[in-house]
Design a protein that fits this description.
alpha+beta; 22-stranded mixed sheet; elongated
């Protein structure tokens, strides 16, 4: 009895082992002969059907080990079908972004076989790739009402019924962003990008979940070494780090700098051959709060609650010994440029802290330089938008600024821009206090052959309104001890000397040394300044205020 039982146990044991070995060999054969082709077909169908045949997909090879649920992918290439692209473009149905993706090697872990075979469902624990390349192309803004209404989850059916991916990790991703039709006016390149996209679900349930970024629950992006060049290659831009997290919807840019490609003044103006501004902009950090990346990707819309810029530095240099730029500036006020922006913008507020600005001008006649500085500027801008629906609710963009002029003089300014204005209407007001001759003499040599021997300006106030063609307003200026010295420069030797007679006549018979004087304050009211068509916004403001100042100082 014992011997017979032992034989039966051995029989069933060997039978069980044989059955397990058979099932193992069966799974291997199924993986090689059926599941691998099925998986390739499902991936290709998802890409092609889900994009309305806009994309093509090719896969070099899949090496499956389904006991561990692992799949190695080689030679995955997703491109744009040029014929279908032109067809959708003509019909106005192109998506906001199109993509090219090249991945030489990647792997999937935790692939579930039975849902793939019997349920047309792709269920994967993790997808990982290293050193892939992505090219995103922004297509022109179009009427979204003509876009196809079939959602992705429905377009990929019946080939794929559902996609579940635990997370996608992309390391050392190379990233390039361009605009439509090869227009190089926008071409942004990132040397390295790391992305972690978690809890991806593509089906009707996910489509109804408004908390998802696309079809993902969580998205974290880390970009390194941004590089950008302007259309004419005269300027380049770089940023060290750009981080985005969907957890708190924050976008942070660190160590940003925009500068001329030719850094030396002589080389820059030799190439420009005109009075083009040589501008350098840099800042430590800019942060967008509640930034909605999905609206940017899908609709080319920049939407955020606030934008905070920390410690920006702006340096502007203009060499007036070169011929002026004759391009008209009409239609280029700040709010007019906002309305013409290529992207839809919805930003509730912008805050700039501790801004430093230096404007240096080289004089047209004497070649000397004068610098105007603004320091410690705190700027607040509200209702920054070009969305017609938001403008109908609130049409005013308001900016306020406080800081220091020329190192130590308190400055306050306020601007109001009607976003629905037809001819660039605006209003501006401001106050500047406690300016001395020593501060202004840093400007005078470049602006004219004059020098302030003495001046104590206690307060300057102005209130202006204007449009594309002129500015009108009132100016008040309280000061004491005004004395101006007129100078001349010998063109041959460069020697500067005083025009004594003209200086004496000017200060005795033309200029008023103080205001108020004899108990009466002179105020310039109804000052009108016509705008030159090549004059930028802030030049019109300054020239209008200066016209009022001249009237007060001369008593006219």
């Amino acid at each position: 009895m014992t011997t017979r039982l032992t034989k039966q146990v051995r029989y069933w044991l060997f039978t069980g082992l044989a059955l397990i070995a058979f099932l193992f060999l069966f799974l291997v054969v199924v993986a090689e002969r059926y599941v691998v082709p099925q998986l390739k077909a499902r991936i290709s169908a998802f890409v092609v059907s889900g994009s309305d045949s806009l994309y093509t997909c090719s896969i070099g090879s899949l090496d499956a080990s389904f006991l561990g649920g692992n799949v190695e992918i080689s030679g995955l290439h997703i491109g744009v079908d040029s014929v279908r692209y032109r067809s959708l473009q003509a019909a106005g149905r192109l998506p906001s972004l199109t993509m090219k993706f090249d991945m030489e090697h990647g792997h999937m872990q935790g692939v579930r076989v039975l849902p793939l075979v019997f349920g047309k469902k792709i269920d994967v624990r993790e997808v990982f790739s290293k050193d892939a390349r992505v090219i995103l192309q922004r297509n022109r803004r179009r009427d979204t009402s003509v876009l196809a209404s079939v959602p992705l989850w429905k377009a990929m059916q019946p080939d794929v019924s559902r996609i579940l991916i635990g997370q996608v990790r992309l390391d050392n991703l190379r990233f390039l962003y361009t605009t439509e039709d090869g227009d190089r006016s926008v071409k942004i390149q990132f040397d390295t990008c790391n992305a972690l996209i978690r809890r991806i679900r593509i089906d009707s349930v996910a489509a109804a979940d408004t908390d998802r970024i696309g079809f993902a629950r969580d998205v974290t992006l880390h970009f390194y070494d941004l590089k950008f060049r302007s259309a004419d290659s005269s300027y380049k831009l770089k940023a060290k780090v750009i981080d985005y997290s969907s957890t708190d919807r924050s976008l942070v840019v660190q160590d940003f700098k925009l500068q001329p490609t030719l850094k030396e003044k002589d080389a820059f103006y030799a190439a420009a051959k005109s009075r083009k501004s040589m501008t350098v902009i840099e800042y430590d950090k800019i942060a967008f709060t509640n930034f909605k990346v999905e609206t940017f990707l899908n609709h080319n819309a920049i939407e955020a609650d606030s934008v905070l810029v920390n410690a920006p530095k702006i340096s502007i240099y203009v060499d007036k010994t070169y011929p002026p730029m004759l391009a008209g500036k009409v239609g280029q006020y700040p709010h007019q440029q906002l309305m013409r922006a290529g992207a839809l913008i919805r930003i509730k507020g912008i805050g700039i802290r501790n801004l430093s600005l230096a404007y240096t001008e080289r004089g047209e006649k004497n070649g000397q330089e004068g610098t105007l500085t603004l320091d410690g500027i705190n700027l607040q801008v509200g209702n920054v938008t070009n969305d017609p629906a938001l403008i109908r609710r609130n049409n005013l963009c308001v900016a306020t600024a406080t800081g220091r002029l020329l190192g130590q003089s308190p400055l306050e300014m306020r601007f109001v821009f009607p976003l629905d204005s037809t001819e660039g209407q605006f209003s501006a007001s401001g106050t500047i206090r406690h300016v001395t001759a020593a501060q202004l003499n840093a400007l005078a040599p470049a602006l004219a052959n004059t020098r302030l021997q003495s001046l104590d300006m206690h307060e300057l106030r102005f209130a202006l309104h204007g449009d594309d063609y002129s500015a009108t307003g009132d100016v008040r200026m309280r000061y004491d001890n005004l004395f101006v010295v007129l100078q001349k420069t010998d063109e041959r030797t460069g020697t500067v000397s005083t025009k004594k007679l003209l200086t004496k006549i000017l200060n005795r018979f033309t200029l008023q040394s103080s205001n108020p004087a004899n108990g009466t304050e002179r105020v310039a009211t109804g000052v009108v300044r016509s705008r030159q068509m090549t004059e930028p916004f802030f030049a019109l403001l300054w020239n209008t205020v200066y016209t009022g100042m001249q009237g007060i100082m001369t008593g006219h």
